[in-house]
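Let us work through a complete example step by step.
Step 1: write down the sequence.
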Amino acid sequence: MWSMNSMSDSNRSDEQTVLGVEIGGTKLQVGYGTVSGKLWRLWRCHARPHGGARAILGDVYGLLGQALRHAAEHDWPKPGAIGIGFGGPVDAVRGATLISHQVDGWKDYPLVQDFSQRFDLPVRLENDASTAALAEATLGGGKGFKRVFYVTVGSGIGGGWVLNGGLDPGQGIGMAEIGHLACQDEQGRWVRLEDVASGWGIQAHARRQLEREPEAGATLLQAAGGDPSKITTEEIARCAARGDDFSLRMLGYGAEYLGWGLANMITLLAPDRVVIGGGVALAGESYWRMLQESVERHVFHLFRGRYELVPSELGENVVVAGALLVAGARLP
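Step 2: predict the structure and record it as tokens.
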């Protein structure tokens, strides 16, 4: 399904125009806008992960073609660069994707070279969480702060670290990978943070607990149509909002682990603001309260009261907005 969103003409400016691209596991987006992150128009479609990297690239190139044709028809300034936010690990120095855990064909793929040859424009590639972090630090929940950490909590967990307005690239192959922190689950097994605190982690825990506590989980199971395999974090959040104790405990499980991970990050980096995005961040007031309490329990005591946890402000366009900013960094 293809769609196009138009922004108001009042958002137009005389700034250099660029293209921002999001290559995600569920959706693909292309934005035409400016180096300051102002989005003029957005084109999007669903990703086709079963078709592999080749199918996804074909759809991305189709979206870019639409954007360039529309710009030419409306006499928009030609874009000066392309920024890409990719949903997986990347080597920003080589301009290559390293791997995708959901889609075949991305291992060591020279994405920057491919885009540059096809569109004859300078291209910069970053991980999608890093581009989102730059957008939130520049335009959203972290605007005006020098030390901003962004974390997205959805089917997985990713992070980005922005210092004095710029991304910290680490060694060029990743930075702020908070979802890959090692922790122990409720059975004492060593797992990654995203295995227990992501949306998938929360719903997997709920399904396991339902086997142990069928009576306590009856309300949630009924909401899922009696099928444990259909229990989702979204359904858990809805039941929790209606006061279901079992569902509240399931959210608390994820909030406790994420709070522990954020507390460790705060203890190491001392951010002014921590911006939290992704679907799980929308799980409701109870989740936010439990998350904040967990961070306070685990953080270095001298840092309590010296940071803020805030929700993302830019919504589903956050990666594209960041990709526009990333593209601007490729211009002289």
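Step 3: interpret the result. The radius of gyration is 20 Å.
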